[in-house]
Amino acid sequence: MLTRRIIPCLDIKEGRTVKGVYFENIRDAGDPVELGARYAAEGADELVFLDITATNEQRKTFAELVRRIAHHIAIPFTVGGGISSAADVHTLLHAGADKISVNTAAYRHPELIDELARLFGSQCVVVAIDTRYEEGEWWVYINGGRIRTFTRTVDWAREVVDRGAGEILLTSMSHDGAKQGFALDITRQLATTLPVPVIASGGAGTMQHFLDVFQQAHADAALAASIFHFGEISIPQLKAFLKQHQVPIRD
Amino acid sequence: MDIVIIRYHAGNIQSVLFALERMGYQAVVTDDVGRIRSADRVIFPGVGEASSAMQYLQAKGLHTLIPSLSQPVLGICLGMQLMGSYSEENQTPCLHIFPEQVKRFPQESGLKVPQIGWNQIHELHSPLFEGVKEGAFVYFVHSYYMPLNEATIAKACYGIPYSAAVQQNNFYAVQFHPEKSAQVGEQILRNFIHLPV
Predict the structure, then answer these.
(1) CB pairs below 8 Å between A and B: how many?
(2) Cross-chain CB nearest to B137 (options A71, A96, A251)
(3) Mean pLDDT calculated for residue range B19-42
């Protein structure tokens, strides 16, 4: 049986792992390769590495880091942050990344998604969508959550799938960092209507929150950062809890 | 042990190389016909699209070389699909090592395609799975599959049962990614390298 996935996310700045609370107040939580290897050994199903400072100069450094990650870690991982062209994607996949995630560049130039799916296959194209609930609707935000668009999240999600996205990484800015649980309604809406997997992100604070996002919102995977980095929830403990509640989980 | 990874227009070659290095094996990535023919073990990996991969193989003369190899060969993911006779992905005639048509997962019944994630392998019967438990979890990423057939040596189920692995003579192929399947995957790669010839 295909299992639900637990995905620790590592935000990377200048080669180090960081995590913002409400996208601000960045704290340092260690070396990405060591931390990633530790999560893999603990039973993480995949990893996500987001380069949060991607400038052109730093992207080269990031590609070297990706190569080091691929060398040391025997589970799949996705990389994202500032990716804006097929050439960027080629570099990162060639360095050993399994999937890449695009966000703002895909929103500004949606045909990028078609191009990436055609060149590299849908299976490695993750479209990350940052969303916030306002005035009774979920809206797409871009530029790391700094710019609001007037596109409804359900419409954008449908479009990216039609263009060839193989997976959606949905982050609720209304929930991120608050540790009050995932955004169950929008996650459910996408996960139950789209023909591709949906990774829920933002809001994990307890093991029950993971159970809720799998059982109530039917997320295919759940992503979290700080609760893992700071040891608030351990992955083995979380997986045992989910298994005990009949969620299909990898041993 | 001389291990060769076939270079062609496809992703994840680096990951296979890294996995072997973690296990203490050096491998050479090449599309040179003579170099591939003389190797002790040949790995035919791949993530990508079937028709452009076949075009590349044809341009390099690898489409006639691969079926003629006599040492143990391991196809991975797209590599396995290309070892069938035909793929529904862009109606592509393939290498015909296994006389099977590769099909797309049906979109109905709420199945998400591609299948992405960890799934179990069952009914393991091959030295390739020595020391691997029934129901072990391995990592899959694919939209197309090879149906169950006489060469099936491991089954998986995603809406329908299908071939997670096949074997015929010296040709082995797995639909999942051993290079991304943690300890279980490393065991399978090690078993392939240690296969009796």
Answers:
(1) 90
(2) A251
(3) 96
Instruction: For residues A41 and A115, give the distance between their C-alpha atoms in angstroms, rounded to a whole number.
Output: 35
A197 touches chain B (CB under 8 A): yes
The pLDDT tens digits of the residues spanning A107-149 come to: 999 999 999 998 888 889 999 999 999 999 999 999 989 999 9
Looking at the domain covering A5-244, what would its CATH class be?
A: alpha beta
B131 CB near a chain A CB, below 8 Å?
Answer: no
What is the per-residue pLDDT for A103? 96
The minimum CA-CA distance between B70 and chain A, rounded to whole Å, is: 30
User: What's the residue count for chain A?
Assistant: 251
Task: Judge: B15–A96 Cβ closer than 8 Å, yes or no.
Answer: yes
Residues 10-39 of A with CB under 8 A from B: none
Tokens of A79: 């990389």
Of the pLDDT bands very low, low, confident and very high (cuts 50, 70, 90), residue A21 is: very low
Domain definitions of chain A by residue range: 5-244
A94 — contact with chain B (CB < 8 Å)? Answer: yes
Query: A218 and chain B: CB distance < 8 Å anywhere?
Result: no
DSSP string of B71-120?
Answer: S-EEEETHHHHHTSSEETTTTEE---SS--EEEEPPS-TT--SSEEEEEE
pLDDT higher than threshold 90 for residue B3:
yes
Q: How far is A204 from chain B (nearest CA, A)?
A: 21
Cα(B151)–Cα(B129) distance, rounded to whole angstroms? 15
Nearest to A12 by CA among A34, A30, A24: A30
Average pLDDT rounded to a whole number, residues B150-175: 97
Nearest C-alpha neighbor of B94 from the set B64, B71, B69, B60? B64
Inter-chain contact B11–A76, Cβ cutoff 8 Å? no
Q: Which residues of B are catalytic?
A: 77, 177, 179
Contact A94 B14 (CB under 8 A): yes
pLDDT exceeds 80 at position A30: no
Q: Looking at this protein, which amino acid is placed at residue A96? A: G
The string of pLDDT tens digits covering residues A36-59 is: 988 999 999 999 999 987 666 667
Domains and CATH numbers, chain B: 3-193 (3.40.50.880)
A24 vs chain B: nearest CA distance in angstroms?
Answer: 31
pLDDT at A22 over 80: no
pTM here?
A: 0.93
